[in-house]
Amino acid sequence: MDSALVIGGTRFIGRHLVEELLEHEYDVTIFTRGNHDNPFESDDRVSHIEGDRTNDSALEAAATTVDPDAVFDCVAYHPKDVQAATRIFDDREAYVYVSSGAAYGREEVPKREDETPLEACTTEQAIDDSSDTYGNRKAAGDRAVFAAAEKGRNAMSVRPCIVYGPHDYTERLDWWIDRVNRFDRVLVPGDGTNIWHRAYVVDVASALRIVAERGEAGEAYNVGDRRLTTLEELVEVIAAQLETDVEIVHAGPHELAAGGIDLEDYLLYRSYPHVLSTAKLADLGWESTPLEEAMERAVDAHLESDRDGSEHGPDREAEERVLGILETL
């Protein structure tokens, strides 16, 4: 493969994917609405087509203009998006859909691509835009990929878990880095042992490329860090990269209630472990970045940015009330 069309490509996963493709000497075109700054605007190796991916005519024009070997779909949020793209790019060497670990419909450890069932998706959910139906819609997109493959199209799916790293506009990890960087005592919900599988964004980008080059049509591939960490271990890894010491304080639901906080208010907290098997992807030759190296880059990027995640997690004043009560116990 020599050329690629990235639907998306300027914000987070797509941005790192473009960099990954350039490193492997692809001719890259990005297809975006132009609503966000284009980090590749001055890079003559990257062409840009402006258009709305929900407009089939715009996608058809891009297919004709670019004629890419591989298509990477980073912003397909409804099953109809995948259905249209697999039809329009039906003769490409690879169509890779960015799905999600949220597509899985049963809690088990680990979740496996060919064993764990996917979420159902009703007609109403398929056209919804709320976060409540995100997993349902991603699962329906996966099924659209499988249906396309049955028609002879080289369509595949990649399912990341929680993605972190430079340019992460969700600020989920930034919230925790900010806490560790600014305070000596860090409140960790529960007993600190909960696990929500995470994936370094650079590894997600390499997974997308490798699946396009080596994956099989009609298959889905999980992607996540090969080394999992509990939430408490995550705080410790962040502290090590910041070269600081913090006291980790645990708080259960009753203690958190003193600050008007619920366990689920904490970013990256999940009561039931969410773990994806990555063996299938590893069989293609994919490897994940060592955790300490990935976290070092994530921390450096955080320190160079203005992101702190303050709009998403509990505020410090509420946490201080909880910490004050815990001191009296």
Automatic annotation (TrEMBL):
SUPFAM superfamilies assigned to the protein according to its UniProt record, in alphabetical order: NAD(P)-binding Rossmann-fold domains
Domain of life: Archaea
Domain NAD-dependent epimerase/dehydratase: 4-82, 92-224
InterPro entries found in the cross-reference section: Epimerase_deHydtase (IPR001509), NAD(P)-bd_dom_sf (IPR036291)
Pfam families: Epimerase
Coiled coil start-end: none
Similarity annotation: Belongs to the NAD(P)-dependent epimerase/dehydratase family.
This protein's name: Nucleoside-diphosphate-sugar epimerase
Organism of provenance: Natronorubrum thiooxidans
